[in-house]
Design a protein that fits this description.
This protein is an alpha/beta fold and about 475 residues long. The chain contains 15 helices and 25 strands. The chain has three domains: about 290 residues, Alkaline Phosphatase, subunit A (3-Layer(aba) Sandwich); about 120 residues, 2-Layer Sandwich (Gyrase A, domain 2), CATH 3.30.1360; about 30 residues, no CATH class. This is Arylsulfatase A-like enzyme.
Length: about 475
């Protein structure tokens, strides 16, 4: 395999891939290798998932621990929002990137290969996906770019970028044109990644099964169809692999709330920055982080949350912050880092169908998402399940692989297929991508979690990494 095209459909649930919603993806999955047990990382958020994909490491390794987080050494009075380039660069503290592991672009450059990124997502996510673009002299373009040589290059070639809309269909379609009409013929990268912001945007604002959402999903699939057609028309089509992925799934938000306000009502001094009148900094999310002025507050907060029927188990950067049996360590999921919150709250979701008959609902804390909108970030089965399909090039045909996989395994698999080195990553090359005989079903286990919950999980081998599958109530 000499080249590879990666296509990310942000937030796509695998149970929504079918001949009606996604005809091109469904057909490609039947022709290639589909990973039935593909999962996200925790937290299952885009700017945690993108570094995990591009570095082949989980958050504890690369250091991007949440979409929204608190770091007193960077901004003591406010939360950092990683969708913003300025906050990503603030976290880098004068360096190129806050990521603490090399990216795919860097790995390819060391081996004489090139990488290009086309992104219809946020500018911060694009920076995390290709942080070394300027230093390497390679292509990185995002729909929010208005300044600089790359923005001018795209504008001169294809005209102005459409404005943001909900759904974000026009920008998704334009990003497809940037890749197919400009990047692939002009730059001819060895590996290219296009990040499509749909169906995630529509899921959040219109709900998982709305007509607007399904139209946005079909539009994203149509972009994929044009990419497949471009690949198939190339003289070296047999040497070009395709990897189609989603970074996380979605549940339907059911019971919107503000954890900060709930904590304040319970008598805690909670806020969004560590001011003189704040003891607990809260980052809203589907798995909100709590940064404590004093670790002695942890037992009090845990006692309060244990009385709330919407609260699931707590996770901690340092589990010694609470008595044994009261908290799960973030390290269990590969998510413990110096930037991690002292405590991470989970919400108690269920498997009940939403009003579109899609299973999975959960409370959430997101000020700008309506109740009933799609959400992700936690450990619900529907948040963790992802799409992963590999086809063409060195990849096998007509395989439904059972081996566990997550985002960190994708780049090692890509590099292996191209005959390139991939040392130093936590992920592993997925052998079933190339040969059905190398597939093996996962070793499944169930771990007890505080508060009468259980965590379903998988391993590829005895003693191997844990792949979380679902957090649910016991019984």
């Amino acid at each position: 395999m000499k080249r590879c095209l990666m296509v990310a459909l942000d937030g796509l649930r695998p149970d929504m891939v079918n001949a009606t919603n996604t005809p091109h993806l469904a057909a490609l999955a039947a022709r290639g290798t589909r990973f039935a047990n593909a999962r996200s990382v925790f937290p299952s958020e885009t700017r945690v998932a993108t570094p995990s994909l591009i570095t082949g490491c989980r958050p504890g390794g690369h250091g991007m621990v949440a979409n929204t987080l608190f770091d007193a050494s960077v901004a003591p009075d406010r939360l950092l929002r990683t969708k913003l380039v300025e906050d990503v660069l603030a976290m880098a503290a004068g360096g190129e990137t806050p990521l603490q592991r090399p990216s795919l672009g860097e790995r390819l450059a060391r081996q004489g290969k090139t990488f290009a990124l086309v992104s219809a997502g946020t500018a911060g996510a694009a920076r995390l996906l290709h942080p070394a673009a300027e230093r390497l002299g390679s292509f990185r373009w995002n729909v929010e770019d208005t300044e600089g040589a790359t923005a001018a290059e795209v504008r001169d070639a294809l005209g102005a970028t459409p404005p943001h809309a909900t759904p974000n269909t026009a920008r998704v379609e334009f990003a497809g044109r940037v890749l197919i009409e400009h990047v692939l013929p002009r730059h001819r990268p060895d590996v290219a990644l296009i990040w499509l912001s749909e169906p995630d945007v529509a899921f959040h604002w219109a709900g998982l099964g709305s007509e607007a959402t399904l139209a946005a999903l079909r539009a994203a699939d149509a972009v994929l169809g044009r990419i497949i057609a471009w690949r198939d028309a190339q003289p070296d089509a047999a040497e070009i692999g395709l990897i189609i992925l989603s970074d996380h799934g979605h549940v339907t938000g059911h019971g919107k709330m503000s954890l900060r306000e709930e904590l304040c009502r319970a008598g805690f001094r909670a806020g969004t920055g560590m001011g003189t009148d704040v003891d607990v900094v809260v980052a809203p999310a589907s798995a909100p982080g709590l940064w404590l002025r004093d670790a002695a507050l942890a037992p009090q907060i845990a006692d309060y949350l244990a009385t709330q029927n919407w609260a699931g188990p707590l996770l901690a950067r340092d589990p010694a912050i609470l008595a044994a049996g009261r908290v799960l360590p973030l390290s269990l999921l590969g998510s413990a880092h110096a930037r991690s919150a002292d405590l991470v709250v989970t919400f108690a979701g269920d498997e009940e169908p939403d009003h579109w008959s899609l299973p999975g609902r959960a409370p959430f804390d997101a000020p700008d998402v309506p109740d009933g909108g799609g959400m992700h970030g936690g450990l619900h089965r529907a948040e963790l399940a992802t799409v992963l399909v590999m086809q063409g090039g060195a990849f096998g045909a007509g395989i439904v692989a059972e081996e566990p996989a997550d985002l960190t395994d994708i780049v090692p698999t890509l590099l292996h297929g191209m005959g390139l080195a991939g040392e130093g990553m936590e992920g592993r090359a997925l052998r079933a991508a190339y040969r059905a005989a190398d597939d093996a079903p996962p070793l499944r286990e169930t771990l007890e979690a505080p508060g009468n919950f259980v965590l379903e999980a998988m391993r590829a081998a005895e003693g191997g990494r844990l792949y979380p599958t679902a957090l649910r109530r016991a019984g």
